[in-house]
Records
---
Amino acid sequence: MRIALAYIFVVLLWATTPLAIKWSGEGPGFLFAVTSRMAIGMVCLLLVLTVLRRSLAWHRKAWLTYLAVAVQIYGSMIIVYWSAQFIPSGWISVIFGLAPLMTALLANLLLKEHHLSFSKFCAYCLGVGGLYIMFGTALNLGESATLGIVGILLATLLQSVGAVWIKQIKAGLPALAQVSGGLGLALPAYLITWGMVDGQWPETLSTVNIAAIAYLGMIATTIGFSLYYYLLTHLSAVRVALISLMTPVLALILGHLVNHEPLNEQIITGTSLILAALVMHEMVDRIALLKLKRSNANKL
């Protein structure tokens, strides 16, 4: 039951996070937005650790896990914030929908979790087809939108690499420790990046900016990241990545209704192909599992 509730909460967070990311960076700039979010998140996590009287592990596997988490929190997230300047917020969730496919390929190579079947190959082709259509839509919005899509693809790849790496390390750390340790490594990198590239405190911060940054720092980072790594500890990397199967439609509708983002036939078609690819990928796994269970039952 706890895993199911955590899963639902993460789905809702991931559906609202892209729009909050976009709103937080409109005005103060993406570097200030993401750095302030992570700083607020780090403060909240330290308070939680203090209240719960928890400490972090410092053995080799723990350090490697924190580094893998930092790859996601810094490497992936900073690219997401940069890309959010150029594309509608809903697209972030759609392109991140390819995470299960990327994660499955990486898990196949590194963890030997699955093998590449013809059906899965077809699913990957569907996903690429949907992405191709999204690229076509981006060209209508300008060259910068294409850069935004490429950026989110890179961020998705880094997210998948981090997830598989964490599963490969098998440190068995609590989710709160993973987030705190990873953010502890990522935050200095954010501060250095902001100081070197920008380093200027924004002249004005709107109510929307402040609310979005606070939501992302206190809720999405502190609670969302903790639940994500909790799920990653108890479920396979591919199963956790399937959260992105549910969020694209919610994020697109939210962006269209609240932020007046475009939602034409081309966008719907590209999104549908990506989601169809994920459904096919998931069904192949379920069918294979059922066949295996029946085969084992027949042997008994």
---
Amino acid sequence: MTYTYKTKPLPHQRKAFTETANRAHYALFWDPGTGKSKPLIDTVSYLYQEGKCDGVLIVAPNGVQLNWLTDEIPKHMPDDVRKDIKATVWDPVRARSTQKYKKELASLVKHEGLAIILVNYESIITPLFKTYGKRFLDKRKSCMILDESHRIKSADSKVKITAVALGQHAQY
């Protein structure tokens, strides 16, 4: 595997990346603050460079999805990949009411580079996002990331059922 890191990984991050980068499904059950985002961003970047992924759905707790966009992606994603991204944070109010935002969401699905949609757990259960999320994942070579996945541990919760259903539409 050939991959050039933007930021040097810690040994456990390097091991996780090299062991999982080509797997379709995996989980990192590490303690908070141990650097899970970095190997996930490296995996997405590697898969994009290999032509295996061009769309990413990131589900995170409310507010945390913004950290991916403002902090984690700029810090860890290699510049040659980052120059090709178009990212949008799901806004349920704007998705229902503004034509400009609806056009932005449609253009994200059609984006030629790496398209990233960031959404919080509360929003994935809405009918509007379920429809959009499936369409996004189906139209792209897609990857789905669940940040703080303990949010779906309840077997019969709507969030868990929706996250699992959406995951069936992602290749990674």
---
Amino acid sequence: MTHLLDGPGRPAAQQPSWPDAEALKGAIDTLASFPPVVFAGECDVLRERMALASQGKAFVLQGGDCAETFAAATADNIRDRVKTILQMAAVLTYGASVPVVKVGRMAGQYAKPRSSDVETRDGETLPAYRGDMVNDFEFTPQARIPDPQRMVRAYHASTATLNLVRAFTTGGYADLRHVHDWNKGFVATPANAAYEKLARDIDKAMRFMLACGADFDAMRATEFFAAHEALILDYERPLTRVDHRSGRLYDTSGHFIWIGERTRDLDGAHIDYVARVHNPIGVKLSTKTTADYVEQVMDRLDPERTPGRLTFITRMGARQIRDALPPIIEAATAAGAAVTWICDPMHGNTFESSSGYKTRDFADIVEEVHGFFDVHRALGTVPGGIHIELTGNDVTECIGGAEKILDADLTKRYESVCDPRLNHRQGLELAFLVA
């Protein structure tokens, strides 16, 4: 399959320097022999859901780890992440009065782009950590050597994760009544009492549905899709397969894949790759984005302007979104956009705290979401969803929120190996504020 996907001479940014060509070939051949992680028909369903979100008939919630790790791929961690997304989705469904499309940053988010190829600590310089798919976070020469067998391990961790996610979301764990009970427990705490009225309103709606004879058994299961950044092409390409029904290519490593800020070069290998697959795809757009780029990338990735095919995930920063986003939306609209607009309020709001930790302020995250909605309201366009880095655990990585996490608290439970994530309570609080 690889020969179908190689753009001739196209530069591939952010790729590992694999030291052993034979070992790399062996890993790629192994991946190519494995069954798909997801199926083409599931990707088509998500395209339909994303199309609804582009028209204001659904709302997308993308959430999960900044970078998954093999050590954290445990049943408890997966359950808690799914639980957080389900709780947020229940609140957002009520607030938006439309279905919420649940998409996890999981079952494949094992690689991260880096601003530098190397990292220096105490005078020693080693290759940068590029995610568990490539090398290890431990700062030793041996751990930082890129190992292609890690791609095979990432495949197995992804399939195990998605297998458990499917069990949770179809086996009764996602029952709307349970999810609502969890949220009632959340607002019962003094810090979150401000959201009690909304929770009571949802409770009344649930009782009304019950009185009308609503089929709650039909609400015991829910759709849940897997997404990740398509970064390491030596992983994505072997998992690209031809669908026997349509003859189209699909990246079967995940339902939804996106291209990040550092790899969205129009002449690069990443854009060339996603142009060839039929999955719903996303492109991250920062304040560096130009109107000309928006039109060109639409022509390249969605020439027929098909709703559900292309998503723009904007990451502007709380202080810049109201100025930077309008010209991008206006350019896309003028070019006949059928895209789904999603707000990533995380990546534009990262800073180093006085204690030396990379963090984000919850107030900035909320402000960027407000700005996103304000801009779309002013332009008459559709805000289609939010994209959040979060965990189901009670970490202390982002300051602020009802818990009032302070800079001094970051040392208590800072567990991310890359970017700071909202914890379980902050994720829920954001959902209540958006609702």
